[in-house]
Amino acid sequence: MNVPLWAWLAVLGFIVLMLAVDLFAHRKAHVIGVREAALWSAVWVAFGVGFGALVWRIYGAEFGQQYFAGYLIEKSLAVDNVFIWAIIFTYFAVPREYQHRVLFFGVLGALVFRGIFIAAGSAIIASAGWVLYLFAAFLLYTGYQMIRHRNEHLDPEKSKALALFRRRVPMTEDFHGQRFLIRKRGALLATPLLAVLVLVEVTDIIFAVDSIPAIFAVTDEVFLVFTANAFAILGLRAMYFLLADLIHRFIYLKIGLALVLIWVGIKMLLKIDIYYIPTPVSLAVIATILGVSIAASLWVTRGQARHALPAPQNPPFGTASAEEIEALEPLWRRPGKKSVRT
Predict the structure, then answer these.
(1) Is residue 169 part of a domain?
(2) Which of 250, 284, 289, 302 sits at 20 to 30 Å (Cα–Cα) from 218?
Protein backbone atom coordinates (compact mmCIF):
# COMPACT_ATOMS: atom_id res chain seq x y z
CA MET A 1 0.00 0.00 0.00
CA ASN A 2 1.73 3.12 -1.26
CA VAL A 3 0.48 6.15 0.66
CA PRO A 4 1.96 9.49 -0.47
CA LEU A 5 3.09 12.09 2.02
CA TRP A 6 0.30 14.46 1.04
CA ALA A 7 -2.27 11.84 2.10
CA TRP A 8 -0.73 11.64 5.57
CA LEU A 9 -0.69 15.43 5.80
CA ALA A 10 -4.29 15.63 4.60
CA VAL A 11 -5.45 13.17 7.27
CA LEU A 12 -3.52 14.94 10.01
CA GLY A 13 -4.85 18.30 8.82
CA PHE A 14 -8.41 16.99 8.87
CA ILE A 15 -7.97 15.65 12.40
CA VAL A 16 -6.61 18.99 13.61
CA LEU A 17 -9.45 20.84 11.87
CA MET A 18 -12.14 18.65 13.43
CA LEU A 19 -10.57 18.96 16.87
CA ALA A 20 -10.63 22.73 16.46
CA VAL A 21 -14.28 22.62 15.39
CA ASP A 22 -15.13 20.43 18.36
CA LEU A 23 -13.29 22.72 20.76
CA PHE A 24 -15.04 25.78 19.34
CA ALA A 25 -18.45 24.11 19.48
CA HIS A 26 -17.92 23.30 23.16
CA ARG A 27 -16.03 26.45 24.16
CA LYS A 28 -18.63 27.20 26.82
CA ALA A 29 -19.08 24.69 29.62
CA HIS A 30 -22.48 23.02 29.47
CA VAL A 31 -24.08 19.68 30.17
CA ILE A 32 -24.08 17.61 26.98
CA GLY A 33 -27.41 15.87 26.58
CA VAL A 34 -28.27 12.65 24.80
CA ARG A 35 -29.48 14.40 21.64
CA GLU A 36 -26.29 16.44 21.24
CA ALA A 37 -24.14 13.39 22.00
CA ALA A 38 -26.06 11.29 19.47
CA LEU A 39 -25.61 13.97 16.81
CA TRP A 40 -21.87 14.23 17.37
CA SER A 41 -21.58 10.42 17.50
CA ALA A 42 -23.30 10.19 14.13
CA VAL A 43 -20.93 12.81 12.72
CA TRP A 44 -17.81 11.00 13.91
CA VAL A 45 -19.05 7.59 12.75
CA ALA A 46 -19.93 9.10 9.36
CA PHE A 47 -16.38 10.44 9.04
CA GLY A 48 -14.89 7.09 10.04
CA VAL A 49 -17.06 5.09 7.66
CA GLY A 50 -16.63 7.66 4.90
CA PHE A 51 -12.86 7.46 5.18
CA GLY A 52 -13.07 3.68 5.00
CA ALA A 53 -15.16 3.93 1.85
CA LEU A 54 -12.52 6.24 0.39
CA VAL A 55 -9.77 3.73 1.20
CA TRP A 56 -11.87 0.97 -0.36
CA ARG A 57 -12.39 2.97 -3.56
CA ILE A 58 -8.76 4.07 -3.98
CA TYR A 59 -6.82 1.04 -2.71
CA GLY A 60 -9.28 -1.78 -3.26
CA ALA A 61 -11.49 -4.11 -1.25
CA GLU A 62 -8.73 -5.86 0.71
CA PHE A 63 -7.34 -2.68 2.24
CA GLY A 64 -10.83 -1.30 2.73
CA GLN A 65 -11.83 -4.41 4.66
CA GLN A 66 -8.65 -4.23 6.72
CA TYR A 67 -9.46 -0.65 7.67
CA PHE A 68 -13.01 -1.51 8.70
CA ALA A 69 -11.82 -4.53 10.70
CA GLY A 70 -9.33 -2.32 12.54
CA TYR A 71 -11.88 0.44 13.01
CA LEU A 72 -14.40 -2.01 14.46
CA ILE A 73 -11.82 -3.46 16.86
CA GLU A 74 -10.74 -0.02 18.07
CA LYS A 75 -14.30 1.28 18.35
CA SER A 76 -15.43 -1.73 20.37
CA LEU A 77 -12.44 -1.70 22.71
CA ALA A 78 -13.01 2.02 23.19
CA VAL A 79 -16.37 1.26 24.80
CA ASP A 80 -14.46 -0.16 27.76
CA ASN A 81 -12.71 3.20 27.96
CA VAL A 82 -16.10 4.86 28.25
CA PHE A 83 -17.01 2.71 31.23
CA ILE A 84 -13.73 3.54 32.97
CA TRP A 85 -14.25 7.25 32.37
CA ALA A 86 -17.68 7.03 33.94
CA ILE A 87 -16.15 5.45 37.04
CA ILE A 88 -13.43 8.12 37.23
CA PHE A 89 -15.85 11.02 36.81
CA THR A 90 -18.21 9.54 39.37
CA TYR A 91 -15.45 8.97 41.92
CA PHE A 92 -14.19 12.54 41.59
CA ALA A 93 -17.75 13.90 41.37
CA VAL A 94 -16.72 15.94 38.33
CA PRO A 95 -19.56 18.29 37.33
CA ARG A 96 -20.98 17.10 34.01
CA GLU A 97 -20.46 20.48 32.37
CA TYR A 98 -16.68 20.16 32.87
CA GLN A 99 -16.31 16.59 31.64
CA HIS A 100 -16.04 17.44 27.95
CA ARG A 101 -12.98 19.61 28.54
CA VAL A 102 -11.21 16.74 30.29
CA LEU A 103 -12.13 14.32 27.52
CA PHE A 104 -11.07 16.74 24.78
CA PHE A 105 -7.53 16.94 26.09
CA GLY A 106 -7.66 13.27 27.04
CA VAL A 107 -8.45 12.30 23.45
CA LEU A 108 -5.81 14.71 22.16
CA GLY A 109 -3.24 13.00 24.36
CA ALA A 110 -4.55 9.60 23.30
CA LEU A 111 -3.96 10.45 19.64
CA VAL A 112 -0.37 11.44 20.38
CA PHE A 113 0.38 8.35 22.47
CA ARG A 114 -1.31 6.02 19.98
CA GLY A 115 0.76 7.53 17.20
CA ILE A 116 3.94 6.86 19.19
CA PHE A 117 2.88 3.29 20.02
CA ILE A 118 1.93 2.56 16.41
CA ALA A 119 5.25 3.86 15.08
CA ALA A 120 7.15 1.87 17.70
CA GLY A 121 5.11 -1.28 17.09
CA SER A 122 5.59 -1.07 13.34
CA ALA A 123 9.34 -0.59 13.72
CA ILE A 124 9.62 -3.52 16.12
CA ILE A 125 7.63 -5.84 13.85
CA ALA A 126 9.70 -4.82 10.82
CA SER A 127 13.00 -5.50 12.59
CA ALA A 128 11.97 -8.53 14.65
CA GLY A 129 9.10 -10.51 13.16
CA TRP A 130 9.15 -12.98 16.04
CA VAL A 131 7.61 -10.30 18.26
CA LEU A 132 4.28 -11.20 16.64
CA TYR A 133 4.31 -14.35 18.76
CA LEU A 134 4.55 -12.17 21.86
CA PHE A 135 1.75 -9.92 20.62
CA ALA A 136 -0.47 -12.93 19.96
CA ALA A 137 0.28 -14.50 23.34
CA PHE A 138 -0.39 -11.17 25.03
CA LEU A 139 -3.77 -10.83 23.30
CA LEU A 140 -4.78 -14.35 24.30
CA TYR A 141 -3.71 -13.74 27.89
CA THR A 142 -5.47 -10.37 28.04
CA GLY A 143 -8.68 -11.88 26.68
CA TYR A 144 -8.53 -14.65 29.28
CA GLN A 145 -7.89 -12.16 32.08
CA MET A 146 -10.74 -9.96 30.89
CA ILE A 147 -13.16 -12.89 31.13
CA ARG A 148 -11.77 -13.96 34.48
CA HIS A 149 -12.06 -10.49 36.00
CA ARG A 150 -15.11 -9.32 34.07
CA ASN A 151 -16.94 -8.26 37.23
CA GLU A 152 -14.06 -6.22 38.63
CA HIS A 153 -13.80 -2.48 38.04
CA LEU A 154 -11.22 0.25 38.39
CA ASP A 155 -10.90 1.75 41.86
CA PRO A 156 -9.47 5.27 41.38
CA GLU A 157 -8.58 5.45 45.07
CA LYS A 158 -6.06 2.64 44.55
CA SER A 159 -4.50 4.16 41.43
CA LYS A 160 -0.72 4.47 41.78
CA ALA A 161 -0.71 7.23 39.17
CA LEU A 162 -3.18 9.25 41.22
CA ALA A 163 -1.24 8.64 44.43
CA LEU A 164 1.99 9.78 42.76
CA PHE A 165 0.27 12.88 41.36
CA ARG A 166 -1.08 13.82 44.77
CA ARG A 167 2.34 13.41 46.38
CA ARG A 168 4.27 15.36 43.77
CA VAL A 169 1.87 18.07 42.61
CA PRO A 170 0.40 20.76 44.89
CA MET A 171 -3.35 20.61 44.40
CA THR A 172 -6.45 22.46 45.57
CA GLU A 173 -9.35 20.77 47.30
CA ASP A 174 -11.97 22.29 44.99
CA PHE A 175 -12.84 22.37 41.30
CA HIS A 176 -12.44 25.88 39.91
CA GLY A 177 -14.60 25.82 36.82
CA GLN A 178 -12.85 24.29 33.82
CA ARG A 179 -9.42 25.32 35.01
CA PHE A 180 -6.64 22.76 35.26
CA LEU A 181 -4.34 25.22 37.05
CA ILE A 182 -4.88 28.22 39.31
CA ARG A 183 -2.66 30.65 41.16
CA LYS A 184 -3.35 31.19 44.84
CA ARG A 185 -1.27 33.40 47.13
CA GLY A 186 1.37 33.44 44.42
CA ALA A 187 1.64 29.64 44.20
CA LEU A 188 0.72 27.70 41.07
CA LEU A 189 -1.64 24.88 41.99
CA ALA A 190 -3.28 22.04 40.10
CA THR A 191 -7.02 21.58 40.41
CA PRO A 192 -8.70 18.19 40.80
CA LEU A 193 -9.64 18.47 37.12
CA LEU A 194 -5.97 18.07 36.20
CA ALA A 195 -5.75 14.97 38.39
CA VAL A 196 -8.76 13.57 36.53
CA LEU A 197 -7.08 14.31 33.19
CA VAL A 198 -3.91 12.52 34.28
CA LEU A 199 -5.91 9.46 35.32
CA VAL A 200 -7.82 9.48 32.02
CA GLU A 201 -4.53 9.59 30.10
CA VAL A 202 -3.01 6.78 32.15
CA THR A 203 -6.01 4.53 31.58
CA ASP A 204 -5.90 5.22 27.85
CA ILE A 205 -2.23 4.27 27.71
CA ILE A 206 -3.10 1.00 29.44
CA PHE A 207 -5.90 0.34 26.94
CA ALA A 208 -3.59 1.19 24.04
CA VAL A 209 -1.30 -1.65 25.11
CA ASP A 210 -4.20 -4.01 24.31
CA SER A 211 -5.65 -2.35 21.25
CA ILE A 212 -2.51 -1.63 19.23
CA PRO A 213 -1.38 -5.30 19.04
CA ALA A 214 -5.00 -6.24 18.26
CA ILE A 215 -5.20 -4.06 15.18
CA PHE A 216 -1.83 -5.29 13.91
CA ALA A 217 -3.47 -8.71 13.77
CA VAL A 218 -5.78 -7.55 10.97
CA THR A 219 -3.48 -5.22 9.02
CA ASP A 220 0.23 -4.51 8.70
CA GLU A 221 -0.33 -1.15 7.02
CA VAL A 222 0.70 1.66 9.36
CA PHE A 223 -1.54 4.13 7.55
CA LEU A 224 -4.59 1.95 8.17
CA VAL A 225 -3.59 1.23 11.76
CA PHE A 226 -3.24 4.93 12.53
CA THR A 227 -6.36 6.14 10.71
CA ALA A 228 -8.55 3.39 12.15
CA ASN A 229 -7.31 4.34 15.61
CA ALA A 230 -7.73 8.06 15.00
CA PHE A 231 -11.28 7.92 13.66
CA ALA A 232 -12.34 5.52 16.41
CA ILE A 233 -10.82 7.71 19.13
CA LEU A 234 -12.19 10.99 17.79
CA GLY A 235 -15.73 9.84 18.49
CA LEU A 236 -15.00 8.72 22.04
CA ARG A 237 -16.16 11.92 23.73
CA ALA A 238 -19.57 11.82 22.10
CA MET A 239 -19.81 8.09 22.75
CA TYR A 240 -19.16 8.68 26.44
CA PHE A 241 -22.00 11.18 26.82
CA LEU A 242 -24.27 8.86 24.83
CA LEU A 243 -23.51 5.67 26.77
CA ALA A 244 -22.35 6.78 30.24
CA ASP A 245 -25.83 6.37 31.72
CA LEU A 246 -26.32 2.98 30.05
CA ILE A 247 -23.23 1.11 31.16
CA HIS A 248 -25.26 -0.96 33.62
CA ARG A 249 -27.04 -2.54 30.66
CA PHE A 250 -23.99 -3.83 28.74
CA ILE A 251 -23.53 -6.79 31.05
CA TYR A 252 -22.05 -9.14 28.42
CA LEU A 253 -19.97 -6.63 26.49
CA LYS A 254 -16.76 -7.32 28.42
CA ILE A 255 -17.06 -11.00 27.51
CA GLY A 256 -17.57 -9.99 23.89
CA LEU A 257 -14.49 -7.76 23.94
CA ALA A 258 -12.47 -10.57 25.52
CA LEU A 259 -13.55 -12.98 22.78
CA VAL A 260 -12.56 -10.40 20.15
CA LEU A 261 -9.06 -10.18 21.67
CA ILE A 262 -8.81 -13.98 21.79
CA TRP A 263 -9.97 -14.22 18.17
CA VAL A 264 -7.44 -11.68 16.87
CA GLY A 265 -4.74 -13.38 18.95
CA ILE A 266 -5.54 -16.69 17.26
CA LYS A 267 -5.63 -14.96 13.87
CA MET A 268 -2.20 -13.46 14.49
CA LEU A 269 -0.73 -16.82 15.49
CA LEU A 270 -2.14 -18.54 12.42
CA LYS A 271 -1.04 -15.73 10.12
CA ILE A 272 2.62 -16.06 11.10
CA ASP A 273 3.32 -19.56 9.78
CA ILE A 274 0.14 -21.54 9.19
CA TYR A 275 -2.82 -19.86 7.52
CA TYR A 276 -3.96 -16.36 6.69
CA ILE A 277 -7.60 -15.95 7.65
CA PRO A 278 -9.23 -13.76 4.98
CA THR A 279 -10.10 -10.26 6.15
CA PRO A 280 -13.83 -10.59 5.34
CA VAL A 281 -13.97 -13.64 7.63
CA SER A 282 -12.23 -11.76 10.44
CA LEU A 283 -14.53 -8.79 9.98
CA ALA A 284 -17.60 -11.02 10.07
CA VAL A 285 -16.44 -12.86 13.20
CA ILE A 286 -15.66 -9.62 15.07
CA ALA A 287 -18.97 -8.04 14.06
CA THR A 288 -20.88 -11.18 15.08
CA ILE A 289 -19.22 -11.42 18.50
CA LEU A 290 -19.88 -7.78 19.26
CA GLY A 291 -23.39 -7.83 17.85
CA VAL A 292 -24.39 -10.90 19.87
CA SER A 293 -22.87 -9.58 23.12
CA ILE A 294 -24.58 -6.19 22.75
CA ALA A 295 -27.93 -7.65 21.69
CA ALA A 296 -27.89 -10.20 24.52
CA SER A 297 -27.01 -7.48 27.04
CA LEU A 298 -29.81 -5.19 25.93
CA TRP A 299 -32.31 -8.04 25.82
CA VAL A 300 -31.55 -9.30 29.32
CA THR A 301 -31.65 -5.77 30.76
CA ARG A 302 -34.65 -4.59 28.77
CA GLY A 303 -36.88 -2.29 30.74
CA GLN A 304 -34.04 -0.77 32.75
CA ALA A 305 -33.96 3.01 32.47
CA ARG A 306 -30.96 5.26 31.89
CA HIS A 307 -29.24 6.30 35.09
CA ALA A 308 -25.83 7.51 36.11
CA LEU A 309 -23.55 5.61 38.44
CA PRO A 310 -24.38 6.33 42.09
CA ALA A 311 -22.52 9.39 43.33
CA PRO A 312 -20.15 8.95 46.29
CA GLN A 313 -21.60 9.90 49.66
CA ASN A 314 -18.48 11.89 50.54
CA PRO A 315 -16.98 13.35 47.34
CA PRO A 316 -13.19 13.79 47.65
CA PHE A 317 -13.34 17.33 46.25
CA GLY A 318 -15.65 20.30 46.42
CA THR A 319 -16.58 23.03 43.96
CA ALA A 320 -15.43 26.61 44.34
CA SER A 321 -18.08 29.30 44.31
CA ALA A 322 -18.38 31.85 41.51
CA GLU A 323 -17.04 34.51 43.87
CA GLU A 324 -13.97 32.42 44.69
CA ILE A 325 -13.29 31.81 41.02
CA GLU A 326 -13.69 35.49 40.19
CA ALA A 327 -11.22 36.40 42.94
CA LEU A 328 -8.48 34.10 41.61
CA GLU A 329 -5.11 35.63 40.85
CA PRO A 330 -4.06 35.82 37.19
CA LEU A 331 -2.47 32.55 36.15
CA TRP A 332 0.51 33.83 34.16
CA ARG A 333 2.74 36.81 34.80
CA ARG A 334 4.67 38.73 32.15
CA PRO A 335 8.08 40.26 32.83
CA GLY A 336 7.80 43.96 33.51
CA LYS A 337 4.11 43.77 34.29
CA LYS A 338 2.32 42.95 37.46
CA SER A 339 0.11 40.27 36.00
CA VAL A 340 -1.91 39.06 33.09
CA ARG A 341 -5.41 37.79 33.68
CA THR A 342 -6.37 34.70 31.70
Answers:
(1) yes
(2) 250
Phi, psi at residue 319, to the nearest 5°? -130, 125
- Please indicate, yes or no, if residue 24 is contained in any of the structural domains: no
16 within domain boundaries: no
Backbone angles phi, psi at 182, to 5 degrees: -140, 165
* Residue 12 belongs to some domain of the structure: no
Q: How many CA atoms lie within 13 Å of 142's alpha carbon, on the beta-carbon side?
A: 25
CB 289 within 8 A of CB 259: yes
C-alpha radius of gyration, the chain, whole number: 21
Q: Cα–Cα distance between 319 and 53 in angstroms, integer?
A: 46
**In the Cβ-directed half-sphere of 232, how many Cα atoms lie within 13 Å?**
28
Interval 245-258: pLDDT, tens: 777 788 888 898 88
pLDDT in tens, 5-55: 999 999 999 999 988 888 777 777 777 888 888 898 899 999 999 999 999
Domain count, the chain: 1
**Sequence letter at residue 105:** F
Q: Which domain holds residue 57?
A: 30-305
What global pTM score does this model have?
Answer: 0.83
Long-range contact pairs involving 314-320 (C-beta distance under 8 Å, separation at least 24): 315/92, 315/93, 316/91, 316/92, 316/93, 316/192, 317/92, 317/93, 317/173, 317/174, 317/175, 317/192, 318/173, 318/174, 318/175, 319/95, 319/174, 319/175, 320/172, 320/174, 320/175, 320/176, 320/177
